[in-house]
């Protein structure tokens, strides 16, 4: 029995933000009924594949039930309406205007079930100048200012390694739905949630874009303490072409490292404002280039410094820490799943089955 046992979720989402949100509900006992188009969620066809399923699809849709409904047909509409009458949560991820055309906007679903919590996840929200603008994650990051500081020393933005606006929207939608369910326990009333990827991502810049938030200039990576302007929050190349990271700007870490390297004279630069630490950064670049990444790992082993080797995903997932925490789970069928980040003491978790796509109800 999970924390969400007894909660039924109708999930009309595809790709990443919605499925990531609803799989977290399924992982904790909610009954999630995934409504797919006749061709299925496009993520089903995205490789690589393992144990008969896309790894992406499996990790975002395990533990759900799947129904293939043609929502343009009368039979499909009737079937969805029946499901809505008994559901607690309705989640959709279409562009604004699609659900009214299908006959399942919030007002229509609320008429079927006044207590339902209805959540729409879109790129830019249900209204505003950008509401109809097509976008996946990177375009949202570009328009929100985040891509501009996802740059290298040359100032050129690069493709992000994390779909931050997708994930921010999934987490925001989950939080909002759980709040609404808690509120319904007290009031008996459902709720409507307009969750936008753009809106969800913006608060993530509070620690880096303070000057712009306050009405001033936009921060630049080379002069911002968390974006590349500080010596102790920086990535350095090693002798073997790999990289290491210093990930803590607290002066106590600088004292330990610079003392060990015999360069305590550089300590004032570690205390200087971001953008004024170039002598320190230059010294650390030269220093780290003298040993291989793994030699530095060994060298740092007995030093209390916020240091880390830059690992690829294979190396990261093979770390003892991942096994000790049970973060990568293999099923009896040989499929691998990343464990949910929310886990409760005393509760055991194992991946639910990945839903097959049933025949379409037309």
How would you briefly describe this protein structure?
By secondary structure, this protein is α/β, with parallel strands linked by helices. The chain has helices spanning 17-27, 55-61, 74-85, 98-102, 106-112, 137-143, 164-187, 197-201, 210-213, 251-260, 267-271, 278-288, 293-300, 313-317, 320-325; strands spanning 8-12, 31-36, 49-50, 53-54, 65-68, 89-92, 117-122, 191-196, 233-237, 243-247, 307-309, 328-330, 336-338. It has 2 domains: 8-204 and 330-338, Crotonobetainyl-coa:carnitine coa-transferase, domain 1 (Rossmann fold, 3-Layer(aba) Sandwich); 233-305, formyl-coa transferase, domain 3.
What do these coordinates show?
The protein is α/β, with parallel strands linked by helices and 362 residues long. The chain has 2 domains: 8-204 and 330-338, Rossmann fold (3-Layer(aba) Sandwich); 233-305, formyl-coa transferase, domain 3 (2-Layer Sandwich). 35% of the residues lie in helices and 15% in strands. It has 15 helices and 13 strands. The chain has a 6-stranded parallel beta sheet with strand order 5-2-1-6-7-8, sandwiched between helices. A 3-stranded antiparallel beta sheet has the order 9-10-11, covered by helices on one side. Helix 1 (17-27) packs across helix 7.
